[in-house]
Amino acid sequence: MRLTSEQAEFAAAVRDFAQTEIKPVIGDFYERGEFPANLVRDLGKLGVFGVTLPEEHGGADEGLLMLGLALEEIARVDASVAVTVEAAVTLGAEAVAQFGTDEQKHRWLPRLASGQGLCAFALTEPSGGTDAGHTDTRARLEAGEWVIDGAKCFITNAGTEMTDLIIATATTGPGEVSCIAVEPGTPGLSVGPEYSKVGWRASDTRPVYFDGCRVPEANLVGQRGEGFHQFLHLLEGGRVALAALSTGSAQGCLDEALAHAKERESFGKPIATNQSIAFMLADMRLRAHTARLAWMDAAVKADDGESFGTDAALAKLHASGAAVDNARDATQIFGGYGFMNETPVARAWRDCKILEIGEGTNEVQRMLIARSLGV
Ligand SMILES: Cc1cc2nc3c(=O)[nH]c(=O)nc-3n(C[C@H](O)[C@H](O)[C@H](O)COP(=O)(O)OP(=O)(O)OC[C@H]3O[C@@H](n4cnc5c(N)ncnc54)[C@H](O)[C@@H]3O)c2cc1C
């Protein structure tokens, strides 16, 4: 796809930041399982968090295509930082931007758009994420306040020093799911310790608990009872963004494997001169290319106001598979070094599996695609 000069310049600026600022240091954060708050704040200064948000609240009013370009460039060197942005914007801040009141937008969006504050979206519960309409967390109205009780799990950005807001889904009546915003520090809200994760180790993922947690009635985000439809809609954008992230990962694996294959010698010649390695690289290029076409196609439809749910599912299913396959092949090309945590491809290998699980598993994407076929 041919980008406008503005899109190409933005992608180049993010690429430069990712290559010069994130790439040299992220491996150490990853090993320590530490959230790189200052890097995330600096990305905010580049305008990455505000890309899709309204101009009047500090955003750039651009679309998913522009955000996807940024996510692809970040994920090309590291998926942890990319998912921090992805979850904060497409699920968190977008919930406020698309469904919030004017007062909520004025209050929360400027910091979220600047990337100095982060928003978490808490949908998944210990009893299940796929069947998200079944929400055990309850909220009842009492004297002008929502009183929330329940637990969420695997919530990205829930416990960082930058977290401004957690938007949680809760059952507010029979068959009625709503979204309610809770600010850190609210009595009755607690956030558990960071999980010990296989991958995405420099991102923040935690359980969240509500125990008689009281917030003003005005913290309802969107219409009461519309929470289920709201998050289904948000997840469509999230899937396009996660497909862009997956494409970046697939491309990053190709970048690393190609450089290694040209340099590493075996039997007196670079391993890239063996057809088996060259063909592996060709397949990796094909996967990154088709994944890019898929997420961009879905993003353009979304930005043009067309329905894009099936395209988002196609893009996410295809791009996550491309990331997994490229991580496997890149690791193979690196040989034993590919099994060492110090190499970026080992990180990609650990990071890629969640791409087939988060924001709707592969099974969910296939269900959506099959449904679009009338089966
Ligand atoms: C690192 C990380 C970050 C995350 N960040 C967030 C976040 O910010 N916010 C949030 O709300 N959630 C988040 N999640 C949760 C994630 O979205 C869920 O893990 C995912 O949706 C799957 O839900 P589950 O883990 O409960 O699996 P389950 O729903 O228990 O599913 C288990 C398996 O059964 C399959 N399955 C279930 N139902 C069916 C069916 N009807 N037909 C066929 N197969 C089926 C699934 O596809 C899956 O393979 C995160 C998870 C991780 C690991």
TrEMBL record:
Coiled coil: none
Residues of the Acyl-CoA dehydrogenase/oxidase N-terminal domain: 4-116
InterPro entries reported in the protein's UniProt record: Acyl-CoA_DH_CS (IPR006089), Acyl-CoA_Oxase/DH_mid-dom (IPR006091), Acyl-CoA_Oxase/DH_mid-dom_sf (IPR046373), AcylCo_DH-like_C (IPR036250), AcylCo_DH/oxidase_C (IPR009075), AcylCoA_DH/ox_N (IPR013786), AcylCoA_DH/ox_N_sf (IPR037069), AcylCoA_DH/oxidase_NM_dom_sf (IPR009100)
Residues annotated as domain Acyl-CoA dehydrogenase/oxidase C-terminal: 225-373
Keyword rRNA processing: no
Residue intervals of the Acyl-CoA oxidase/dehydrogenase middle domain: 120-213
Gene Ontology molecular function: acyl-CoA dehydrogenase activity; flavin adenine dinucleotide binding
UniProtKB keywords: FAD, Flavoprotein, Oxidoreductase
Domain of life: Bacteria
Protein's UniProt keywords contain Oxidoreductase: yes
Needed cofactors: FAD
PANTHER family xrefs: ACYL-COA DEHYDROGENASE (PTHR43884), ISOVALERYL-COA DEHYDROGENASE, MITOCHONDRIAL-RELATED (PTHR43884:SF12)
Family: Belongs to the acyl-CoA dehydrogenase family.
Protein name: Acyl-CoA dehydrogenase
The organism of origin for this protein: Glycomyces buryatensis
